[in-house]
Amino acid sequence: MQAFGRLLDVLDQLREKCPWDRKQTNESLRPNTIEETYELCDALARGDQHDTMKELGDVMMHLCFYAKIGQEQGAFDIYDVLRQQADKLIFRHPHIYHPSQVGQDNPLPLPYGESDEEREFASAKTADQVLQNWEQIKLREKDGNKTVLSGVPAALPSVIKAYRIQDKARNVGFDWQKKEDVWDKVREELGELEAELKREDKEKSTNELGDFLFAVINAARLYKLNPDNALERTNAKFIRRFNYIEQHSIRAGRPLTEMTLEEMDQLWNEAKEQEKE
Q1: pLDDT tens for residues 179-235?
Q2: Which of 245, 243, 262 is nearest to 254 (CA)?
Q3: What pTM did the predictor assign?
Q4: Can you state the angle between helices 158-171 and 127-140, rounded to 10 degrees?
Q5: How many contiguous H segments (helices) and E segments (strands) does the chain have?
Q6: CB 191: neighbour CB atoms within 10 A?
Q7: For residue range 22-39, what is the model confidence (pLDDT) as tens digits?
Q8: What are the phi and psi torsion angles at 76 (to 5°)?
Q9: Which of 8, 126, 196, 236 is deepest in the core (most CB within 10 A)?
Q10: Hey, is 113 helix, strand or coil?
């Protein structure tokens, strides 16, 4: 708490005395916030604890900065942000708290309520049961989501957005009964994509490509694989292997454009073998 208060004090001083900090707005900070979030995600993906700690600090500074701007505008302050978040967590965890405890300083575990639905919420014992209740509880919030899928941010990257859309639909029962059945859909979408590609219809091919990717992401979700993490691993792997080819060309004094595809394939396989060692 002392360290958090110190951060808020430093931010207050910078907002008052630093020309750069003083001129910032929600709009000017937003691109930097996106960059800092991706830097945090990169540190997490690399498993670098030191960088994760550092990037968490950068993201936290941005959160506090937005709260500071909200306070200056008379809309809200950091207290409102923290209080509302705690209230939301209490309300969404009826298996731990009673909703009437929202706003109390020291909530104690109590039964959720008397209706059959409320008793079902309160009886959640596993992570899957908690997730199944989650969307229904959110719809009961005073200023919560009006529809199940309205909680998916429009600005999410497409792969993550597709996964979240499917996951939210699953939480209200809209899902495959058997995960193996998804492969028929994947094959169906691939066939439709191939058919449109043969017709050279770019618009319809684009639509079918989207359907195919959506189906593959659905399959990944059903098998409890994170498609975004999987694709990022493949991106990193491609970069490592391509960099190996490029470094070889530099040492040989030959530009990549002068190397044959067969030569590059051979170096690619060398890099692949080295990764197995």
Answers
A1: 999 999 999 999 999 999 999 999 999 999 999 999 999 999 999 999 998 998 899
A2: 245
A3: 0.64
A4: 90
A5: 12, 0
A6: 12
A7: 999 999 998 899 899 989
A8: -170, 170
A9: 196
A10: coil
